[in-house]
Design a protein that fits this description.
- The complex is a heterodimer.
- By secondary structure, chain A is α+β, with helices and mostly antiparallel strands.
- Chain A folds into two domains: 89 residues; 235 residues, 2-Layer Sandwich (BirA Bifunctional Protein, domain 2), CATH 3.30.930.
- Helix content of chain A is 41%, strand content 18%.
- Chain A contains twelve helices and nine strands.
- In chain A, the strands form two sheets. Chain A has a seven-stranded mixed beta sheet with strand order 1-4-5-9-8-7-6, sandwiched between helices.
- In chain A, a hairpin with a 5-residue loop joins strand 6 and strand 7.
- In chain A, helix 2 runs antiparallel to helix 4 and helix 5 crosses helix 10.
- The relative contact order of chain A is 0.10.
- By secondary structure, chain B is α+β, with helices and mostly antiparallel strands.
- Chain B folds into six domains: 66 residues, Phenylalanyl-tRNA Synthetase, Chain B, domain 1 (2-Layer Sandwich); 111 residues, Nucleic acid-binding proteins (OB fold (Dihydrolipoamide Acetyltransferase, E2P), Beta Barrel), CATH 2.40.50.140; 202 residues, Phenylalanyl-trna Synthetase, Chain B, domain 3 (Phenylalanyl-tRNA Synthetase, Chain B, domain 3, 3-Layer(bba) Sandwich), CATH 3.50.40.10; 66 residues, 2-Layer Sandwich (Phenylalanyl-tRNA Synthetase, Chain B, domain 1), CATH 3.30.56; 204 residues, Bira Bifunctional Protein, Domain 2 (BirA Bifunctional Protein, domain 2, 2-Layer Sandwich), CATH 3.30.930; 86 residues, Ferrodoxin-fold anticodon-binding domain (Alpha-Beta Plaits).
- Chain B is built from 21 helices and 41 strands.
- In chain B, strand 35 and strand 36 form a beta hairpin.
- Chain B is elongated and about 130 Å long.
- In chain B, 42% of the residues are buried.
- Classes of the chains: A alpha+beta, B alpha+beta.
Chain lengths: 346, 800
């Protein structure tokens, strides 16, 4: 009997060793550990054996059963592992294949720059306000110290609206700058104000690489007690630093706009030549980026702000110009031709 | 304005190099563009004297000129017609850079052998030296030119080109710039005294001036010079005229231009003999009058225009252009010189209307000082006497109806500090103002000054104007930088602004590309969108630069269709574009209504071409899905109803409705419209939403719903209904039953197994009660009731 068990053991183990499919494990288990298996038969037949033999055969059979169960468990684990390994092997990907992109569009580069600039000023306590594109001559010019026949009107070539009043005046136009909103905002609010106005502006101008008939401007102004030219300088220098980086030099020079006094033109040192002078900066080493100044006392008086009590600054900048400088875009007309090959770059 | 530094040196010491001077002028408001060095290429050119001229032995038209250039004498072959022995001429040695007289290109002078005789240099024309365009003959230098002197030393100059701002007429003059330079460099400007000999009877005996319209002419000064010989002006004057960017004409005209450039006062010279009754009348023109101006054109005049007339008729357009009849010609001997101050606005209107903008009108329209008139007049008279050989009549005529006192300006230390944000000592303030020609005295109160403005600074009116002067001369670099220190003002809510930005983000997140198109469109575009477009339904610009940009858009559609079309030509993948922008709706006698709108357009393949993508194309439901998603994220419930709309395909168009109100439209672009925009993609789907109508709904704040704690039971419900029944009607009815918490349409089918004219709709219905766990029996009963209801209402049957 003992020999029979030994034979059973060696046969079972050798069969188990050769198995590599999980389904074969099951039939092996039925064959060697199932109810009808030889081992089970042996164990069932123990009762009929004499006591002496029962004890020795019983111990051997039970030991064999435990051994086979343990072997099976080990085999099951190794079969499972090799199964996983095989499936991993089968599932290799070419990870260099391109990914499946989620649907995600883009903002127009002008919108991106508008947001960027607005964010910088929002962080300095400015509020965003918008105004009409079609304006009265009064807001666009007269209220800003630019009466009819003023030579400064040459600074803004104007697109007029085909609208005549009964007395033959033609007072409606497409705003040439966002500055009319200085008047509109101050007319409707008491100081203090700290506002930026993004918006489209229009010029009667033939287009070329650096001139568009329609473009975006951002107007900014702050009026309160004790606002100074030094505050304007601090605010705009901080803006330039945020937009163009710490390493750019910034310069204020005297310039003339009828609605500010003193007047300012701000420039940054040229990106291309770092101030040495090149074609981008027409040899000057500086690139003009915006006009600014202290709000003219006559403008304040016109909106019933007492210029003896309140002072303020104002500035206006071209949005596309900022993008062109920042991204090295050479032709402003690309912005509104909306060629996807251009738009996709931002 | 082009300013010769050589000329500038007559009035102020130039102690810094040109570049540094240019930088100082630029920083203080007079922007210098180009710096032009005249004579930079003249190495090898010197003053020569023609010693002898002989005929070329082998050529009739050529001469042999022997030229003394100091250290040596050179013989060259020349064809120049104007050479004479004794003349001083610029002579270039071989190797010099010259401008080719024919091609205009810079070339290097090489030795040449002409008809057997070798030339080692040449006498030059003005053009060859880059001085002017003159190339008819050799440039003849003044007799006093020193033989052998390098030409750059004798004639060289540096010209700076200044862009003057419209408020500074004084800077349109060499003296004005000299005053700026003086203040910027700490030197003093020296303006020469004007003296000349006066002879004979007082001018008042010979001519009279009347100003009929003093509102347009505040001052009129005149002098009379007789016995003048008209001829070319001297070389030095011609050079300065050329340096200033003008052309020399004759000594008389050159003198008026010279003095205009020198002082900034335009002048006009009349042929005294042509002035009828020797009478000058300054008046508005009559509507029936006309005048032949100097350029030979007949100008129809009107009562808005100021003219100079004699006793009978107009003889000049005041401040704009002289008349042909009274023009100074070669035979003129007596000159009546005008130096007047005309109203800036009137000059500007007249010159713009006639398209005659000139150096003179540019100065008048910037409001020059009337004090300048007699000063410039006396200077020009002096030059006429000195250079024209004339005799000046005694005195000048000076009619000055517009004289006004300029009051001193009170400037307080407090204001200076408050505007600039830095304390500038009163002593420094005084010093700066003095350097610019202002005079100041203490007002009696400490730290206050009474400042008198010099006559030439017509732009200075307020204390703040003086403060700019202080800042720009001290230098804006000296102003400190500080951040705004006052509290942040209250902000008004801006819901429309944030709605626009949210929508932009949602659409970008939905895979769409933002575009920004012109708000001005062509008439043709308007008509392509709506062939019944009425004139007047869109605002028109009165002076469009191009017909492509003539009308203000009344929808975003045109720009999007055109942009789609333009990109279609080079894009392989699907195109999904949107724009958020204004449309402009005309109003009666008022600014138009500017409404914020949203429009989107899509078409082409659904997925970008890749190894993963299929061939599916974007369709109506892609666009609808995007619109639904946007509304969903805004917590706005929108419904879509079949609708018809201009330019969209009937049966493939839906109205977007919220709370019974139509906010927009969504549909496939009609093939006719697509063809008008040259779009070949099919289908192209478009949507338009009125953001201002959406705004009131978009503020909704979602209410939190507790998460379900009890299990739901899901049942499918596959129905067969008539093909024209709208799915959302059936869905709404299912949704309305109690216990139904969600209804999802998961299949739409028609074809095999579904009778002709019918369709199958399969819904997944989720039943849930917040209070208790539902039983299968309850759910079955409800599902049965739903089915019965749908049978009654729509003849729906359960799909077997």
């Amino acid at each position: 009997m003992k020999d029979k068990l030994d034979e059973l053991r060696s046969k079972a183990i050798s069969e188990l060793d050769s198995i590599d499919a999980p389904s074969d494990l099951d039939s092996w288990r039925v064959r060697y550990l199932g109810r009808k298996s030889a081992l089970t038969q042996v164990l069932r037949g123990l009762a009929t054996l004499p006591l002496e033999e029962k004890r020795s055969v019983g111990a051997a059979a039970n030991e064999l059963r435990a051994f086979l169960e343990k072997s099976l468990a080990l085999k099951e684990e190794s079969v499972r592992e090799s199964e996983v390994a095989r499936s991993i092997e089968r599932g290799r990907l070419d990870v260099t294949l391109p990914g499946r992109p989620p649907a995600l569009g883009r903002l127009h580069p002008a919108t991106q720059m508008l947001r960027h600039i607005c964010d910088i000023f929002l962080s300095m306590g400015f509020e965003v306000v918008e105004g009409p594109d079609v304006e009265w001559e009064y807001y666009n010019f007269d209220a800003l110290n630019i009466p009819p026949d003023h030579p400064a009107r040459d600074m803004w070539d104007t697109l007029w609206i085909d609208f005549e009043t009964e007395d033959g005046q033609r007072p409606m136009l497409l705003r040439t700058h966002t500055s009319p909103m200085q008047i509109r905002v101050m007319e409707s609010r008491l100081p203090p104000v700290r506002v930026i106005v993004p918006g489209k502006v229009y010029r009667y101008e033939a287009t070329d690489a650096t001139h568009e008939a329609i473009f975006y401007q951002i107007e900014g102004f702050a009026v309160d007690r004790n606002i100074t030219l030094a505050d304007l300088k601090g605010t705009l220098f901080e803006f330039a630093k945020q937009l163009f980086g710490e390493e750019r030099k910034v310069r204020f020079r005297c310039d003339y706009f009828p609605f500010v006094e003193p007047g300012v033109e701000m420039a940054i040192d040229c990106f291309a030549c770092n101030g040495a002078g090149c074609s981008l900066c027409s040899g000057s080493g500086w690139i003009e980026i915006l006009g600014a100044g202290m709000v003219h006392p006559d403008v304040l008086r016109r909106v019933n702000y007492d210029p003896e009590v309140y002072t303020g600054f104002a500035f206006g900048l071209g949005v596309e110009r900022m993008s062109m400088l920042k991204y090295g875009i050479e032709d402003i007309r690309l912005f509104y031709s909306n060629d996807l090959r251009f738009l996709r770059q931002f | 304005m082009r300013v010769s530094l050589k000329w500038l040196k007559d009035y102020v010491k130039l102690s810094v190099p040109a570049e540094e001077l240019a930088a100082k002028l630029t920083m203080s408001g007079n922007e210098v563009g180009e710096i032009d060095v005249v004579g930079a290429t003249w190495e090898g050119v010197s003053v020569g004297q023609v010693k002898a001229l002989e005929k070329h032995p082998d050529a009739d038209r050529l001469l042999l000129a022997t030229i003394d250039i100091g250290k040596e004498t050179i013989t060259v072959v020349t064809g120049a017609p104007n050479l004479e022995a004794g003349q001083k001429v610029p002579f270039a040695r071989v190797g010099t850079q010259l401008i080719d007289g024919h091609t205009g290109k810079l070339i290097k002078l090489k030795p040449a052998t002409i008809r057997g005789i070798r030339s080692e240099g040449m006498a030059c024309s003005e053009k060859e030296l880059g001085i002017s365009e003159r190339h008819e003959g050799i440039m003849v230098l003044p007799e006093e030119a020193p033989v052998g002197m390098p030409l750059s030393q004798y004639l060289g100059d540096t010209i700076i080109d200044i862009t003057t701002t419209p408020n500074r007429p004084d800077c349109l003059s060499v003296i004005g710039i000299a005053r700026e330079v003086a203040a910027l460099t700490g030197h003093e400007a020296h303006i020469p005294e004007i003296t000349y000999e006066e002879q004979g009877a007082p001018i008042q005996d010979a001519a009279s001036v009347e100003i009929d319209d003093p509102d347009l002419c505040s001052r009129y000064c005149a002098s009379l010079v007789t016995g003048v010989t008209v001829g070319p002006s001297p070389q030095w004057m011609q050079q300065r005229i050329i340096a200033s960017g003008m052309r020399p004409i004759s000594n008389i005209v050159d003198i008026t231009n010279y003095v205009m450039m020198e002082y900034g006062q335009p002048l006009h010279a009349f042929d005294y003999e042509q002035i009828k009754e020797r009478k000058i009348i300054v008046r508005r023109a009559r509507d029936d009058e006309s005048l032949y101006t100097l350029d030979g054109m007949k100008r129809e005049l009107n009562s808005d225009m100021l003219i100079i007339a004699d006793a009978t008729e107009p003889i000049a357009l005041a401040g704009v252009m002289g008349g042909a009849d009274s023009e100074v010609i070669d035979s003129t001997t007596s000159i009546l010189l005008e130096s007047a101050n005309f109203n800036a606005g009137s000059i500007r209107r007249t010159s713009m209307r006639l398209g005659l903008r000139s150096e003179a009108s540019a100065r008048f329209e910037r409001s020059i000082s009337p004090e300048l008139a007699p000063i410039a007049l006396r200077r020009a008279t002096q030059l006429l006497v000195e250079l024209g050989g004339g005799k000046a009549a005694r005195g000048i005529i000076d009619v000055y109806p517009g004289k006004s006192e300029r009051k001193p300006i009170l400037l307080t230390q407090e204001r200076v500090d408050r505007i600039l944000g830095v304390a500038v000592e009163t002593e420094r303030v005084r010093q700066v103002l003095t350097s610019l020609g202002f005079s100041s005295e203490p007002s009696g109160v400490s730290s206050e000054l009474l400042v008198t403005v010099p006559y030439w600074r017509t732009d200075i009116r307020l204390a703040d104007d003086l403060i700019e002067e202080i800042a720009r001369i001290i230098g804006y670099d000296e102003i400190p930088t500080t951040m705004l220190s006052s509290g942040i003002p209250e902000r008004a809510p801006a819901p429309l602004l944030s709605l626009k930005e949210t929508i932009r983000d949602l659409l970008v997140g939905s895979g769409m590309q933002e575009v920004i198109t012109y708000s001005l469109v062509s008439r043709a575009t308007l008509e392509k969108i709506d062939p019944q477009q009425k004139l007047g339904s869109a605002l028109r610009t009165a002076n469009p630069m191009t017909l492509e940009q003539e009308y203000l858009r009344t929808s975003l559609r045109g720009g999007l269709l055109a942009t789609f079309s333009a990109n279609e030509r080079h894009e392989e993948d699907g195109i999904k574009l949107f724009e958020v922008g204004k449309i402009y709706l005309p109003k009666q006698n008022d600014l138009p209504e500017e409404r914020e709108a949203l429009a989107g357009i899509l078409g082409g393949t659904r997925l970008d071409r890749s190894w993963l993508s299929g061939e599916e194309t974007l369709d109506f439901f892609d666009a609808k899905g995007i619109v639904e998603t946007v509304f969903n994220r805004l917590h706005v419930e929108a419904s879509f109803q079949p609708a018809e709309a201009q330019g969209l395909i009937p049966g493939r168009t839906a109205a977007v409705i919220v709370d019974g109100q139509q906010l927009g439209v969504l549909g496939e672009v009609h093939p006719k419209t697509a063809a008008l925009f040259d779009i070949s993609t099919e289908p192209v789907v478009l949507f338009e939403i009125d953001l201002e109508k959406l705004l009131p709904f978009a503020g909704a704040v979602p209410r939190y719903q507790p998460l379900p704690r009890l299990p739901a039971i899901d049942r499918d419900l596959a129905l067969v209904v008539d093909a024209d029944i709208a799915a959302n009607q059936i869905q709404a009815i299912i949704r309305s039953f109690p216990l139904v918490s969600e209804v999802t349409l998961f299949d739409v089918y028609s074809g095999k197994q579904v009778p002709e004219g019918k369709k199958s709709l399969a819904f997944s219905v989720r039943y849930r009660s917040p209070q208790r766990t539902l039983t299968d029996e309850e759910v079955d009963r409800t599902q049965q009731k739903i089915l019965e209801h749908l049978e009654r209402e729509f003849g729906a049957t359960l799909r077997s």
